[in-house]
Design a protein that fits this description.
By secondary structure, this protein is an alpha+beta fold. The chain has helices spanning 11-38, 45-62, 64-73, 82-88, 100-111, 155-173, 182-195, 198-211, 243-249, 253-274, 306-314, 318-322, 324-333, 343-360, 374-389, 391-397, 405-422, and strands at residues 121-122, 128-129, 133-139, 145-151, 218-219, 232-236, 241-242, 276-278, 286-289, 292-295, 301-303, 368-370, 425-427. Among the domains are: 11-92, no CATH class; 305-403, no CATH class. GO terms for molecular function: ATP binding; protein kinase activity.
Length: 437
């Protein structure tokens, strides 16, 4: 794959890139509708594919938060046409790396010297390139194999301007009011800024490894502060298979079950015991090594305030599902119901949220759950499509809910999709054995 020597970092440069892409997308629409005049039965698949490729090509060159958005959207199966899902999912694996001269320049900027002065060996060509950084293999002077994550130049500085460009597009796409969703944009901005602080990620990685060292089947790399900085992060190199490839290969049932069970137990332990969680359950952030699950990215950690945790899980409890008044009390605490809502609107929203909560909570209320069950995921998709077509619901729900919903929901839906990819039945209550009173 061809490397790149320069990344647009200025607001005008990055905005111009997106505007140029918008012109090409507009041209694709004109071409599509021209062809549809000749063939009324023509569907949108070719248009979606052409637009997805144009947008992804632009985002690849911008990198940073723009490309991160594509990676996140690739996990939202109900939000975009399949062509976008398939193309945007390449954000984890098919991104052009920085050229060797730019790598050396970046090292000098962040650590004050080129990599060959720090390591006994450093591979100038990256082994992986993604949204906000790329990974190189190195060897320490003590003989340890290392993975060195190098952040792309200008990523942190461009986050605010990127979001300013993306915000009006998102508002139009989802018919939202800017004031209603400002708290969500601030949450995204805060998390993206945290993800660009590799010093913070190093601390979070070490804390997670310490807090979860006793959980079986789970491994974490060691981290090296002496080889790290706010834009460079060095850790152990672990030979393993990316989780997505492991799932696609579909190894023996026992192997998949072990990995799926470890993943589930780890996430539920984080939420219910630690009150913080790894909030980026993208398959590219995990490896499988000798049967163990290896977590390798801790840039996005979400703290779970008690004021959100209690009503969030009470909302889907059997008691709340059976008691509308109790459910409405939870919805109010979660900012999903407002004092200004009419009684009719309150009842309408309560019914919708109850239906969603009951469906999503099914795995949590059973001793065992089969995540290979295609009917369960088809029901989720169907409910999402029905809600999306409900104009009254769309009008009422715009901008509702605590900002903590954004990453909590993303994490659990991501966890569900990983479990579905592994396609096994697991014990959903096993994590409780590690909880402390």
């Amino acid at each position: 794959m061809k490397s790149i020597d320069k990344i647009p970092t200025g607001k005008i440069q990055r905005a111009s890139k997106l505007v140029g892409t918008g012109v090409k997308v507009g041209g694709n629409y004109l071409k599509h509708y021209g062809e549809k005049l000749l063939n009324p039965d023509l569907d949108r698949s070719s248009l979606d594919q052409a637009n997805a490729e144009e947008i992804f090509k632009s985002l690849k060159s911008l990198k940073g938060s723009a490309l991160k958005a594509a990676q996140l959207l690739s996990m939202e199966k109900n939000l975009l046409p399949q062509a976008y899902i398939d193309t945007f999912s390449l954000a984890q694996f098919q991104v052009p790396p920085l050229s060797a001269p730019l790598v050396r320049k970046t090292f000098r900027q962040y650590l004050g010297c080129p990599p060959e002065e720090i390591f006994a060996h450093f591979e100038a060509e990256s082994v992986a390139a993604a949204s906000i950084g790329q990974v190189h293999k190195a060897r320490s002077k003590e003989g340890r194999d290392l993975a060195v994550k190098l952040q792309y130049p200008g990523v942190a500085e461009s986050i605010s301007s990127d979001l300013a460009i993306v915000k009006p597009i998102a508002l139009r796409m989802f018919n939202l009011n800017a004031e209603d969703v400002e708290h969500y944009f601030q949450e995204v901005r805060s998390k993206l800024l945290e993800e660009t602080d590799y010093t913070l990620e190093l601390r979070q990685s070490q804390q997670m490894a310490k807090d979860c060292a006793h959980l079986p089947g789970l491994r974490f790399p060691a981290y090296y502060p002496e080889y790290s900085s706010p834009r460079i992060l060095t850790m152990d190199w672990i030979e393993g298979e990316p989780l997505s490839r492991f799932a696609e290969r579909s190894p023996a049932l026992a192997e998949r079950t072990q990995v799926a069970q470890t993943l589930w137990d780890w996430y539920l332990y984080q939420v219910h015991q630690l009150r913080y969680m790894h909030a980026d359950p993208h398959p590219g952030n995990f490896l499988v090594a000798q049967g163990d699950l290896v977590a390798i990215d801790f840039g996005c950690i979400k703290q779970i305030p008690e004021a959100f945790y209690l009503p969030y899980f009470e909302l889907s409890s059997p008691e709340s599902l059976a008691d509308p008044a109790r459910m409405q009390a939870c919805l109010e605490r979660l900012e999903l119901l407002r004092p200004t809502d009419s009684q009719d609107d309150r009842n309408y929203l309560t019914a919708a949220f109850r239906e969603l909560a009951e469906l999503i909570a099914r795995p949590f209320h059973q001793e065992r759950f089969d995540f290979s069950n295609a009917e369960f995921f088809a029901t989720i998709n169907a409910l999402g499509e029905r809600f999306a077509r409900d104009s009254r619901l769309r009008k009422l729900t715009g901008g509702r809910g605590s900002q903590h919903f954004l990453y909590a929901n993303r994490t659990f839906f991501g966890l569900f999709m990983l479990q579905h990819a592994l396609g096994v039945e697991i014990e959903t209550q096993q994590y409780r054995r590690w909880l402390k009173a």
